[in-house]
Amino acid sequence: MRQNIKAEDNLKALAITIMRNKFYDQCRHEERNFTTDRVMEVSIEDRRAEQRDEVNLIKQIVAQLPPLQQQIFRMKEIEGYTADEIMQITGCTADNLRKNLSRARLKIRETYMNIVKQNRTK
Question: Are residue 69 and residue 42 in the same domain, yes or no?
């Protein structure tokens, strides 16, 4: 009888110890996952902020273009007009449209890269 009681006590103690250890393991696991999830949230928020900054920078660069290049760039790249629609609205020829769009893209790219390069050296 004494052995049965001792065996039962040992089994209960062992079960409690196993459950307690499982609980601690689960808590540590959840804490690690929470930390990892939080880091990912922060990194996603940081990336969104960077994207907003980039969009604002490009908007500022576009605002510095000559009016016709601004209009053509916005219509083509932002509003999604076709070349034919842009030519009808602006009265440009196909060749003039291509040149203005090309110049606008080039100016935006060059200005953006110069600003990024300057920010990296700071």
Answer: no
Closest CA to 101 of 66, 53, 69, 60: 69
Domain range for residue 40? 1-49
pLDDT of residue 31: 65
Instruction: Give yes or no: residues 73 and 122 share one domain.
Output: yes
SS (H, E, C) the chain: CHHHHHHHHHHHHHHHHHHHHHHHHHHHHHHHHHHHHHHHHHHHHHHHHHHHHHHHHHHHHHHCCCHHHHHHHHHHHHCCCCHHHHHHHHCCCHHHHHHHHHHHHHHHHHHHHHHHHHHHHC
Is the same domain home to 119 and 68? yes
pLDDT tens digits for 36-74? 565 566 677 777 888 888 888 888 999 999 999 999 999
pTM for this predicted structure: 0.61
Name the amino acid, one letter, at 65.
Answer: L
